[in-house]
Amino acid sequence: MTGDPGTWSASELLALYRRKQLSPVEATGAALERVRRFDPAVNAFCLVDEERALADARASEGRWLRGEPCGLVDGVPTTIKDLILTRGWPTLRGSKAIATDQPWDEDAPATARLREQGAVLLGKTTTPEFGWKGVTDCALTGITRNPWDVGRTPGGSSGGAAAACALGMGALHIGTDGGGSIRIPAGFTGIFGLKPSFGRVPAHPLSPFGTVAHIGPMTRTVADAALMLTALAMPDARDWLALPYDRRDYRIGLEQGVRGLKVAFSPTLGFVDVDSEVARLVADAAQVFEELGAIVEEKDPGFDDPQETFATHWYVGAANLLSRFGPEQRAMVDPGLQEIAAAGAKIPLLDYLAAVGRRGTLGAQMRQFHERYDLLLTPTLPIAAFEAGKERPDPARQPRWIHWAPFSSPFNLTQQPAASVPCGLTRAGLPVGLQIVGPMHDDAMVLRAARAFEAARPWPRPEAPLDPRPAR
């Protein structure tokens, strides 16, 4: 292969290591060079540790030269979102309220699995404070920007991971998703993002936002996400909610296609107002599934807008989070997070339990829906990326971020696997995402469908951060 190793997939890098045609040191150096070149424009990283990354790359190089790689992703440049504990680095969660003078001596399960499998950790990617909103900015690290247009948001809360991924600043990236925080930035930045079934990837500590929160891969190819999920799904006894380990290699069966699958396409879920350009691109993407041999039917899943149910869970989670802080810490927190925490603290227990009941009804509806349909297709988002630094594009109509991202949060409530795949660019050159939702626990089918679409419609990548704004 020729070109910049920073643009190559993890699967390609590993094949070259195996043939001794590329060193992990070269791949890591290329990724770090892209960080130096591109991160000033997008602000994807809150921490980069070049010295440690290169030392780990040299150790990996030695293992490959001996023919003794230590795991699935040995030598692959990787990033960790700053909500996830990483031994030796502070995990500040985008907040000035977190004390930096702590031991930082523990890896979260996701970090531990990647480290055990030989990943070269480059650094930590940005997040809004505690991952509370669908864009990525905070007082601690500033505004993270979209590689396709640096005047626009990459989405969030895994916006740093998405921007790094799109620009080849690492091949593998860990994101979290409590209401769309993997899929929203994947949709806005034209990468692949998977929210696995709840419990598929063990978590520790558990999210203060509760059982809507998932951890998953963000990559430039579906095969890399399958590889990454295979490592991330390995067991960890610290998570008592984790699914039983099934020893699956998610790369197996990835090329089986979608022929014969029954697929429901819901352009609006029955209640969402979608931008006409987004709607056209997503409808074209659904047609591809039919061309690939799937049986596609336009069909809404039949549930009412669960926005209030999700907001109740999210706001109570925010109240739970801030209840741990004293007055001085609380005063440092993003005012928007303070507002939803205050709203959450006022929700009566019986109202919260009623929302839990509605969530259960929604989950049962979707399980029954998937008895008739293998997959559900929707837009990832009803709009393309909007101005960076804003929580919402239209504050008059959208009280909070959840009101402009209505396609993702229902499937956090139901806990089933859902992915975003790029399905085209708007006339302004902004990515649009197609959401693929699968039955609970069938992460493999979601990956298989995403791979079939990727093979039929390869997606473009930005060569460098773009700034189409007129010069001032």
What does it look like?
This protein has 472 residues and is α/β, with parallel strands linked by helices. It has a single domain (7-456), classed as Amidase signature (AS) enzymes (Alpha-Beta Complex), CATH 3.90.1300. 36% of the residues lie in helices and 13% in strands. An eleven-stranded mixed beta sheet has the order 1-3-2-6-8-7-12-13-11-9-10, with helices on both faces. A two-stranded antiparallel ribbon has the order 4-5. Helix 4 (109-116) links the parallel strand 2 (77-81) and strand 3. Helix 5 (159-166) runs parallel beside helix 6 (183-189) and helix 7 runs antiparallel to helix 14 (443-456). The longest helix has 24 residues, at 349-372. The radius of gyration is 21 Å and the shape is globular.
